[in-house]
Design goal:
By secondary structure, the protein is an alpha+beta fold. It folds into two domains: about 140 residues, no CATH class; about 260 residues, Vaccinia Virus protein VP39 (Rossmann fold, 3-Layer(aba) Sandwich), CATH 3.40.50. The chain is about 30% helix and about 25% strand. It is built from 14 helices and 19 strands.
Length: about 425
């Protein structure tokens, strides 16, 4: 290695630490960044979507002679220690369906298109030709390597703290998102479908003919599920999201009663001890006056009635934490880390999920929720922090491996109103 550290490819340097016969190429991409990269370790053009993708998220099919990226097909994860990693993706060719390893493992295995002559590099680089399959590696190099290089970088902004609500309210932000939100029923969104909904349904344990209130029901996914179980469901929401729920009810005729109103006004609309159960799915953290909301839920809930709610995890989700990924376009999950920011900052927060409009959240510590429940005669029966199962990791590796199987994104709490009898 005769040239300076700053000129060398980030990945070539890391691989060289493991096997010193690895050639270190000059970086020509992202030069000056923390991860300058050579042509070999840059991005490749997916033939299906036409987008350039990080080399660890794209595979070459030697039969069809085309690249396919992880964004166009469903990849699977193979656990194997190689170079500085302990797994790789196998990606099916978008044309023939044959599974091929992502280019990081393909290079290690000697099947990279540059190694087998299927493609010729457009830049002058030295291609590694491994002469034996199994390399002597340092013990678990991937773990320390992934953590150290990422934690040195600081945070990537994903949200904005607000000192006042002059321009934003929960209603206005959710009104804007009403046309953007897609029901988990139709899209099968990973978190709702696999982690949130199954758990809150289990905790609620809805029974036929029970009167159930769905607080902040949105477009009605939860209400429809409960109605199909034979329960008598009322859904309330302050935003235009409920208009979509009403439209769907006019089609399905499930007998759900929808009311456009704020959760803080429950006691003005319903009598004391009206409902057998109350559910509030992924909304209490978006309600500014959570104290009044919890007080009113206790008021309209029957004695021994159950209240279940789910929220983004106050300690491990935005805005208490942020995520950083280095390199930014890497598809490997050890290249992503959550950084703790300020768990106790309760200022209103705009959170950007990549939609046209941000959502607004009112972060607060777990103790604030629990203390308010106790104050309003609601006994905590169960808490849940859903963890991705091995089955989910196998089925959705990029969403769950080194992610929801290590830290929870959501918190569910089940309570019972203490009977006064």
């Amino acid at each position: 290695m005769s040239y300076s550290e700053s000129e060398m490819c980030f990945y070539c340097k890391e691989y060289y630490k493991v096997t010193q016969d690895y050639p270190v190429n000059i970086a020509t991409y992202d030069v000056g960044s923390f991860t300058p990269r050579c042509f070999l370790h840059w991005q490749y053009d997916c033939k299906k979507c036409g987008k350039m993708t990080h080399f660890n998220g794209v595979a070459w099919c030697s039969v069809c002679k085309e690249f396919t990226c992880v964004h166009c097909v469903e990849e699977r994860m193979v656990r194997k220690e190689f170079l500085v990693y302990d797994y790789y993706y196998e990606i099916p060719c978008h044309k023939c369906g044959e599974y091929n390893p992502a280019l990081d493992f393909a290079e290690y295995n000697g099947t990279h298109p540059f190694q087998i002559g299927d493609q010729i590099p457009k830049e002058d680089i030295v291609i590694w030709m491994p002469i034996y399959k199994e390399l002597n590696q340092q013990e678990f190099p991937h773990r320390a390597w992934g953590s150290e290089r990422i934690l040195d970088l600081g945070k990537a902004p994903k949200h904005t703290r607000l000192d006042s609500l002059d321009e934003y309210t929960p209603k206005s932000t959710w009104d804007k998102m009403a046309t953007l939100w897609v029901s988990p029923e139709t899209e099968g969104e990973y978190h709702h479908t696999n982690l949130i909904l199954p758990e809150i349904y289990r905790m609620l344990d809805a029974q036929e003919n029970e009167k159930i209130l769905d607080v902040a029901c949105g477009e009605g996914t939860v209400a429809r599920y409960l109605a199909k179980l034979g329960t008598k469901v009322t859904g309330i929401d302050i935003s235009k999201m409920i208009d979509r729920a009403v439209e769907r009810e006019n089609e399905d005729m499930l007998g759900i009663h929808y009311i456009k109103m704020a959760a803080e006004d429950l006691s003005n609309k319903f009598e004391r001890d009206t409902f057998d159960k109350v559910i509030c799915n992924m909304a209490l953290m978006d309600i500014e006056d959570y104290q009044t909301t919890i007080k009113n839920i206790s008021y309209i809930l029957k004695g021994d009635g159950v209240f279940v709610f789910s929220i983004t995890h106050p300690a491990f989700a935005w805005p208490a934490t942020t995520s950083i990924r280095v390199p930014q376009d890497s598809q490997r999950n050890e290249d992503k880390r959550k950084i703790a920011l300020n768990y106790f900052d309760e200022r209103p927060t705009l959170i950007y999920f990549g939609w046209e409009a941000p959502s607004i959240a009112f972060p607060r510590p777990i103790s604030k929720y629990v203390n308010e429940l106790v104050k309003n005669n609601l006994e905590v029966l169960e808490m849940s922090e859903p963890k991705a199962s091995e089955e989910l990791v196998e089925k959705f590796p990029r969403q769950s491996y080194l992610d929801n199987d290590t830290l929870p994104d959501f918190l569910m709490i089940k309570t019972k109103k203490k009977s006064t009898r």
